[in-house]
Fold this protein.
Amino acid sequence: MRKLLVPVLSALLLGATLTTNAQEKAGSASQQASGPRFKFESGETHDFGVVKRGPVAMHSFEFTNVGTEPIIVMNVTPSCGCTNVEWSKNPVLPGQKGFIQLGLKTEEQHGVFHKEVYIQSNAITPHGEKRYTLYIKGNAKDDVTEEDVKKNEKATKGKKKKK
């Protein structure tokens, strides 16, 4: 009887442990699936291509809240003072769209540039970061050639075909 009791109790204890671990994993997976989540329509990086120095280069990152709770954007901060920002000030409900609009002062750019824009919000980030990061890049020139314009057009057409 004792020989039978020890294996049965061990099996019950092992089964209870495995069930508890499976429930904890399922719980954390459902927590990851819920909450506010960004989905940027054109990705998290915008390439202006070649731009003429002087005018403000504008781009709007449009996003959809693909999560289960409203996204609240508290602040959007560029990596330098050469970029103006505007954003959706009201909560963006699940399934709704919002925006982060950037105005890059190209007069302050010389040649190739790479900038970051930091979003402080309640949205879940891909790798658990404290803030969400968007990127802009390009090449600011005093004189933009026809060849530069053609390259920009070609790059823009390529992006539209991928959608």
